[in-house]
Write a structure and sequence with these properties.
Blueprint: E1 3-5, E2 11-15, H1 23-33, H2 39-68, H3 72-93, H4 95-103, H5 111-124, H6 130-166
Antiparallel strand pairs: 1-2
Length: 167
């Protein structure tokens, strides 16, 4: 068994374990030190944060409708664009990540969470260059969402077309 050195350079009588652990030992070690989380408090924070993002979006949409005379459908696209812009700016300033740490899934569900995932990946890899750093890594997290959206839209389009043909 190895013996631990004391600060004075001599050897003490305190034996220590080697730093290598098995996977099971590490899982037990990590679980013992993991802070307990209240499911109800996490759900409440996610609900409040996600709801607040939606209320802000509704306020932006109402602004477009009253200031520019748009219908709800016409105001939808600029509202989403403004929410994405706000999310990206907050990500660049480091504010969105702090809110996301507190709120959890409440900030990940709306379109702002998607914008945050793309912007944070782009910021993280910008030192690797525009194409191989920012461009390639920006879609690592968001790529699966984009692929799912495109595939789902394709199948929904086919179903819509088939219903139109048969009716």
């Amino acid at each position: 068994m190895a013996v631990k050195s004391t600060p004075g350079g001599g050897t003490g009588a305190k034996p220590y374990k080697p730093l290598s652990m098995s996977a099971k030992e590490y899982q037990a070690f990590a679980k013992a030190r993991e802070p307990s989380r209240s499911v109800w408090a996490n759900a409440l924070r996610a609900f409040v944060a996600g709801g607040l993002i939606c209320v802000i979006g509704q306020g932006i949409q109402q602004f477009f409708m009253s200031a520019f005379g748009m219908t709800a459908r016409q105001a939808g696209n600029p509202t989403v664009a403004i929410l994405i812009l706000i999310s990206v700016v907050m990500t660049c300033l480091g504010v969105y990540d702090k809110i996301a740490q507190w709120a959890g899934a409440g900030t990940a569900v709306p379109v702002t969470g998607f914008a945050n995932s793309m912007a944070s990946a782009a910021i993280e890899h910008r030192s690797e260059g525009l194409v191989l750093g920012t461009g390639a890594n920006m879609f690592k997290l968001a790529g699966s969402v984009i692929v799912f959206g495109v595939v789902a839209a394709f199948f929904i389009g086919i179903i819509h077309w088939l219903i139109g043909v048969w009716s």
